[in-house]
Automatic annotation (TrEMBL):
<dbReference type="InterPro" id="IPR016024">
    <property type="entry name" value="ARM-type_fold"/>
</dbReference>
<keyword id="KW-0131">Cell cycle</keyword>
<dbReference type="Pfam" id="PF08514">
    <property type="entry name" value="STAG"/>
</dbReference>
<dbReference type="Pfam" id="PF21581">
    <property type="entry name" value="SCD"/>
</dbReference>
<keyword id="KW-0159">Chromosome partition</keyword>
<dbReference type="GO" id="GO:0007059">
    <property type="term" value="P:chromosome segregation"/>
</dbReference>
<dbReference type="InterPro" id="IPR056396">
    <property type="entry name" value="HEAT_SCC3-SA"/>
</dbReference>
<keyword id="KW-0132">Cell division</keyword>
<feature type="compositionally biased region" description="Low complexity">
    <location>
        <begin position="876"/>
        <end position="888"/>
    </location>
</feature>
<feature type="compositionally biased region" description="Basic and acidic residues">
    <location>
        <begin position="36"/>
        <end position="45"/>
    </location>
</feature>
<feature type="coiled-coil region">
    <location>
        <begin position="243"/>
        <end position="273"/>
    </location>
</feature>
<dbReference type="GO" id="GO:0051301">
    <property type="term" value="P:cell division"/>
</dbReference>
<feature type="domain" description="SCD">
    <location>
        <begin position="279"/>
        <end position="364"/>
    </location>
</feature>
<comment type="subunit">
    <text>Part of the cohesin complex which is composed of a heterodimer between a SMC1 protein (SMC1A or SMC1B) and SMC3, which are attached via their hinge domain, and RAD21 which link them at their heads, and one STAG protein.</text>
</comment>
<feature type="compositionally biased region" description="Basic residues">
    <location>
        <begin position="890"/>
        <end position="901"/>
    </location>
</feature>
<keyword id="KW-0539">Nucleus</keyword>
<keyword id="KW-0158">Chromosome</keyword>
């Protein structure tokens, strides 16, 4: 162990000041002088061939155009990084300056700078002057640089960039990094670049420096290990007897130990330069990405070399940055800490940090950034796993309630915490003994009881599905132990075991049903997630296995559970949800028909016993599921269902007769008999077609009696109305299941009255009938679209079928019917109103359009009904959302060009037409496909439409005359209208083209500024930066010193006051 690493590093810094130059300053007198140009003359010519074609600082390429600069090679990533580094090392051995110049330009180019450092600049100019020169040559047209550019190529570049630095140090660790030249030059350059106001320089150099530091930490760790091994060998040799001791070996070991110590001092000096010259300034940079890089790498150092770095001198930076205002940086802090808390051996070194920053970490479980909250919960879970005493009950409760979060990743992370806290068993012997038991005495028995208690104490009973979903990934074995759950419910407690209360049993049943649903459906409950995702093959297999398992178990257990809890409405209603998740084939394949009979018997008993609507509806739904025609058990269930309905209908009929005969003398028993049977029948009528039992007749009698005599109880009236409502709906279903021609019952009625007078009672009656009939079409305009359009078509033809014998100046005799037809205009889609209006105009003459007399009011009224709402109606075939979005965009951006609006209108009008490939007859309407290829083609630029106009016309004609595509009347009208508008649009676009090009020239993009105000070393700017940190713990951050002064940092640790009053801190010195 390298226990005194801190003191050694501090001593090394003192030595380093005497023996080697500090980056950013001129080389000291003891530093090896650079070769003069005359001395380099002989080696330069040979080195240039190995320095990747760089002559005088300019990148060169061979005749084939292969990449020859370090930047190009690393960016393409085609060569193995070790071979790239080996080539550079070879060039460095031939000429250090030329090779270093290549490396310097590598960092400059990786920053996105177009400038190039020349050899004379490298030899004669200071770093600050070089950087200033490169800043002037920076590309000001764009704010992007390689590290921020999007796309897989640049993402790979970042990886290659980091790998190159790591391999470079690894390959140079035995000699070159100790030559007091290469590392001094690189660190000095990176320190200067990290001070730049150019974000690209600052970001790239900071990333390079942090990766360089990580590589040096790895070298320091290896040196420490070699030192320890050498020391042990030396001690073992020295402890031998004098006669057996090898003095030469002792001298070699001493020499090796001395050499390793010198190398260690050198490495520690380099790390001090990077840490104090770059890290302590850039971890508080104004740019979040730069702060994140620093925090990510310090976490790597603490994990890699914990003896030297895992102390409060370095942990404080992570703790302070937990308050960063950017979620990205807070996330890096938590990730860094997770890597430390994963290793339980490091917990003693983290104890002080945990006590200081635990409250902040727990509060971050409620972070506004969900990703941060998830990682905070995982970190708290790791802290709990390492030491349960570290978290108080209040801390745990703050995490517990997050299992009910609507955001699933947060809830799942909280579920893992809950599992660790409540359900993890830590006694191996007890686990082994309990594992042999099954059922209620199994290890899961007590855990299920604990889960029930937690659920009840949380007082969020309506969210049982959320709790189950949160625990599903971490506690799936427990939640699928349905055998244990049913035994807890069915069996009596053993001696000494406390029985479950009624409230606990209800909670367990509710949780059990939720686990069944989660296993059978294999997706989160409503409100968790964005929708159903496609299951993988493994998940699909698990789902099938779970469904088979639960079906086989509950086919047997459910009748027994219903029998025990038949008197409890809440429990029965929950238990009756289970059959919907069965694989009903198992009743037949498993020869379990007797259990089906037992279930049907219990359901019948429940129906006879309860009148609560929840229970009755659950029974009705269960019968509906079991009666599915695709299963062989359908006949058996249908017979039981019919017998049950027969029995209750017979009771209902008799009880109604008794009630009506008694009249005002009816007692409470008579009323109860009618009400209870009617409630049961109404609940069943909701999901089953009971029209053959003619419940409507007796319901009508009850309602008529109540109207005539006014003595009918309100509850009976409500149930009778509800039952009558269901009877009418089932009758309508039978009617509407036919073709649309059967739906349209208004138009045939008119054939009996060829001459209509709008003032006559006959027309008024038909109009009232039409108004009521229009209400039966419902709100689903897509489903009734073709039927309504056909009704308008037939109605228009009927209205203009006969001409007035007095002449064309008089209205057609049936024109009054248009007033009736206007009752159905609201059922037309917006684009269909235009189509119907166009069809109407075909029957009109110019004289008709200009007439305003009273006799022409039906025509005026009907035309207005087709125009009114035509532009505002958002109920389009695109389900309304696309129209609304398009409208909002237009409102925000101002009025669109006329030609653009024309294109949008044509796309909407042609949308139904373009979907008619799936329409064969008007009676079998299918929902439109919202991803229609033709619809997307219609939204292209008008320029493309003009070029492809002739081919589109051909395709439309093919569509019309293709016998396999029988287009409806509505589609034909839209085809004609679309062709006419296309011709108009072509002519219009020719005149708009020049205007569009003129406007385009006036538009320019604002370039993103490259230079930004960055937090420097002055106290005033530091105070400004402090405002950006949400430091709720009032931590006084130590001010960053001017990096040019290179003043040694004090061991300030967590309390800034200790910086002034106490230099000893915790007795853990820094480098």
């Amino acid at each position: 162990a390298h226990s005194d690493a801190g003191s050694e590093l501090e001593e090394a810094e003192v030595k380093g000041k005497r023996k080697r130059g500090r980056p950013g300053r001129p080389p000291s007198a003891t530093k090896k002088p650079r070769k003069s140009p005359a001395d380099k003359g002989r080696s330069e010519s040979g080195a240039r061939g190995a320095s990747r074609g760089r002559a005088n600082g300019h990148p060169q390429q061979n005749g084939e155009g292969d990449p020859v600069t370090l930047f190009e090679v690393v960016k393409l990533g085609k060569s193995a990084m070790q071979s790239v580094v080996d080539d550079w090392i070879e060039s460095y051995k031939q000429d250090r300056d030329i090779a270093l110049l290549d490396l310097i330009n590598f960092f400059i180019q990786c920053s996105g700078c177009r400038g190039t450092v020349r050899i004379e600049m490298f030899r004669n100019m200071q770093n600050a002057e070089i950087i200033r020169k490169m800043t002037e040559e920076f590309d000001e047209d764009s704010g992007d640089y390689p590290l921020t550019m999007p796309g897989p190529q640049w993402k790979k570049f970042r990886s290659n960039f980091c790998e190159f630095i790591g391999v470079l140090i690894r390959q140079c660790q035995y000699s070159i990094i100790y030559d007091e030249y290469m590392m001094d030059t690189v660190i000095s350059l990176l320190t200067g670049l990290s001070d730049s106001q150019v974000r690209a320089f600052r970001h790239t150099s900071t990333l390079a420096a942090m990766k360089l530091m990580t590589a040096l930490v790895n070298v320091a760790l290896n040196l420490s290990i070699h030192q320890d091994n050498t020391q042990r060998q030396y001690e073992a040799e020295r402890n031998k007897m004098i006669g057996k001791r090898a003095n030469e070996r002792l001298e070699l070991l001493l020499q090796k130990r001395k050499e390793l110590q010198e190398n260690q001092d050198e490495i520690e000096n380099m790390m001090n330069s990077i840490f104090k010259g770059i890290f302590v300034h850039r971890y508080r940079d104004a740019i979040a990405e730069i702060r994140a890089v620093c925090i990510e790498e310090i976490g790597v150092w603490m994990k890699m070399y914990s003896d030297a770095f895992l102390n409060d001198s370095y942990l404080k930076y992570v703790g302070w940055t937990l308050h960063d205002r950017q979620g990205e940086v807070r996330l890096k802090c938590l990730k860094a800490l997770q890597s430390l808390y994963t290793n339980r051996e490091l917990f003693p070194k983290l104890e002080l940090f945990t006590n200081r920053f635990k409250d902040r970490i727990v509060s971050m479980t409620l972070d506004k950034e969900y990703d941060v909250a998830v990682e905070a919960i995982r970190l708290v879970t790791l802290i709990l796993h390492g030491s349960e005493e570290a978290l108080s009950n209040e801390d745990c409760e703050n995490v517990y309630h997050l299992v009910y979060s609507a955001h699933r990743p947060v809830a799942v992370a909280a579920g893992e915490f809950l599992h660790k806290k409540l359900f993890s068993r830590h006694d191996p012997q007890a686990e082994e003994a309990l594992a042999k038991r099954r059922g209620r005495n199994s290890p899961n028995g007590n855990l299920i009881r604990m889960l029930v208690l937690f659920f009840l104490e949380s007082e969020l009973h309506e969210h049982a599905a959320y709790l189950v979903d949160s625990l599903w990934e971490s506690s799936q074995e427990l939640l699928k132990d349905w055998e244990c759950m049913t035994e807890l419910l069915l069996e009596e407690p053993v001696q000494g075991e406390e029985a479950m209360s009624d409230r606990q049993e209800s909670a367990l049943i509710e949780l059990m049903v939720c686990t069944i649903r989660q296993a059978a459906e294999a997706h989160p409950p409503v409100g968790r997630g964005t929708g159903k995702r496609v299951l993988t093959a493994k998940e699909r297999k698990t789902q099938i296995d779970d469904r088979n398992k639960l079906t086989e178990h509950f086919i047997i257990a459910l009748p027994m559970l219903l029998s025990k809890y038949s008197a409890d409405a809440e429990k029965v209603a929950n238990l009756l949800q289970i059959p919907q998740y069965f694989d009903l084939e198992i009743y037949s394949t498993g020869r379990m028909e007797k259990h089906l009979d037992a279930l049907l018997k219990q359901i019948k008993f429940v129906v006879e016993k309860h009148v609560e609507s929840d229970v009755l509806e659950a029974c009705s739904k269960t019968y509906s599921i079991l009666c599915s025609e695709e299963y062989t058990i359908q006949n058996r269930v249908d017979i039981a269902h019919s017998q049950l309905i027969d029995e209750f209908v017979d009771r209902f009929n008799h009880s109604v007769e008794d009630l009506l005969q008694e009249g005002e003398e009816a007692d409470d028993d008579d009323i109860y008999n009618v009400l209870s049977t009617l409630k049961r029948l109404t609940s069943f009528h909701n999901a089953h077609d009971l029209t053959k039992w003619d419940l409507f007749s007796n319901c009508y009698r009850l309602l008529r009696t109540g109207i005539e005599h006014g003595a009918m109880p309100e509850q009976i009236v409500v149930q009778a109305l509800q039952c009558s409502h269901y009877s009418i709906l089932w009758q309508l279903v039978k009617i509407t299941e036919g073709s649309p021609s059967k739906v349209i019952i208004v138009t045939p009625t008119l054939s009996y009255s060829p001459n209509l007078d709008r003032t006559s009672a006959h027309v008024s009656g038909i109009k009232e009938l039409a108004r009521r009939f229009a209400l039966t079409f419902g709100l689903d305009q897509i489903k009734t679209r073709e039927a309504v359009a056909t009704l308008h078509k037939d109605g228009i033809e009927f209205a203009f079928k006969y001409q007035n014998q007095k002449g064309q100046d008089y209205p057609p005799p049936n024109l009054a019917f248009l007033e009736v037809l206007s009752e159905f205009s609201s059922k037309l889609l917006r684009q269909d109103k235009k189509t119907v209006h166009s069809y109407l105009e075909k029957f009109l003459t110019e004289q008709m359009m200009e007439r305003r007399e009273d006799v022409w009011l039906p025509l005026i009224s009907y035309r207005n009904s087709l125009v009114t709402g035509g532009e505002d109606d958002r109920m389009s075939v695109n389900s309304g959302s696309s129209s609304s979005k398009a409208s909002s965009v237009r409102n925000k951006k101002g009025r669109p060009p006329l030609h653009k609006k024309r294109v949008e209108d044509e796309s909407l009008e042609g949308s139904w037409l373009n979907r008619n490939e799936n329409i064969h007859t008007p009676g079998t309407l299918q929902p439109p496909q919202l991803t229609s290829t033709v619809l997307r083609e219609n939204t292209r630029q008008m320029g493309e439409q003009i070029q492809e106009h002739e081919s589109e016309q051909g395709s439309e004609q093919d569509f019309l005359h293709n016998p396999q595509m029988q287009i409806s009347w509505l589609g034909q009208q839209k085809l004609e209208d679309l062709n006419r508008k296309d011709r108009t649009g072509m002519n219009y676009m020719k005149g708009r083209t020049g205007v569009r090009h003129a406007v385009r020239g006036l538009m320019e993009d604002d370039a993103e500024p490259i230079f930004e105000d960055v937090m420097m070393s002055s106290r005033g700017q530091l105070e400004d930066m402090n405002e950006e940190f949400e430091d709720t713990m009032v931590i006084d951050l130590p001010p960053s010193r001017n990096r040019r002064e290179r003043a040694e940092l004090r061991p300030d640790f967590f309390d800034s006051a200790a910086i002034i009053e106490d230099d000893s801190g915790f007795g853990m010195p820094m480098f």
